[in-house]
Amino acid sequence: MTDVHRLAQNIDEQACLDTLAEMVQHKSYSETEGERTLALRMVEIMSEMGLEAFLQPVEGDRMNAIGIWRGTGGGKSLLFNGHLDTNPVSEGWTVDPWGGLVDEKFIYGIGVSNMKAGDAASLCAVRTLIQNGKRLKGDIILTYVVGELQGGVGTYAAIQAGIRADYFINSEPTDLQALTMHADAFVFTIELTGITRHMSKREEAVDAIRAACDLIPQLTHMTFSDAPSHEHRSINRVHIGTIRGALGQSFEEWRPPQVADFARLTGSGRIGPGQSKANALEDFRRVLNELEINWPGLKADVRIEEREGHSSMPAFEVSPDARIVTALNAAYKAVRGKPQPTGVITPPGFYGTDAGHLYAHANMEGVVCGPGGRYNTMPDERVDIPDYLDMVRIYLLTMCDICEVL
Question: How many Å is the maximal CA-CA distance in the chain?
Fold first, then answer.
């Protein structure tokens, strides 16, 4: 067993848990002052560790936290990427969402899975190496960003500011699996216009709500015609998230005896790398053309939305044989004694992540792998403690492999 493997086995588990618990205790809802407060705290922690650490402007008064652990030179650089912003708390929690509670199995809190556990794992891996006097040839760059929930505006800002490395690991929750491809996400709206009559003469009407009910199962089972492989098709998906139908485009709901002549559906789609939204729109149109044939008199329209304040989160892919993937695989096997699940894995393959920006806009080679996932974005959000601690170990060994420990 090498020295770094012994070091990985003997990380300070309590210190790692304390670091994550403190991060959870920050209420860092997306687009609130809490984002900036946590970013400032991350800069303080990284500065205390001896890293070059600074706040990086994003938009308005939003800030990323960036830390650089300089290597001695001659090695490859490795960037870790994760977001600090969280979703709001839903109903149904039985523990304090900001308590950072740790029991014998889990650590709990809003954002602990998505994705403060991944952030803390890379931070604690670097700290372990520094505290034990290790040096690497290559640089480690820690990017703890805001605005991931607005489509990755924080990571995009970091790229625009020139942040780069030879390789990256995005720490989104994959339950420690190595994700090598994920989808591009988009939002769409479909509007169905029928013909109203009083319910006494509904046989003469074209019911927009009933037409929508016919349409939804077809959309649910859609994949897109430009998928170049089975792997790409496996992460194609369409989901209708909202539906509203009533009388007229003003949705006159006070008149239920009338047949609804207007329905609006909004949903989200997923396409793989190399697939296009333009083709997705054409595929939608073909389905709607058939719906119009089956419902004579119905008019169906579709559009893909560009959401104000949200950037587009691109698709991502990397070869399973890429250097960063095989290094991560080797670290996983060293820690867990078995091969790491690797490839186009769902449900993580349906995610949108900042890996898409690093891949598409920074031309970097990387992989998505982080702790959490099973209990993601749900009441009593939590992460298995062994998974979190093993992620610290796996990141540590990957750093030493890619950046070359001295």
Answer: 83
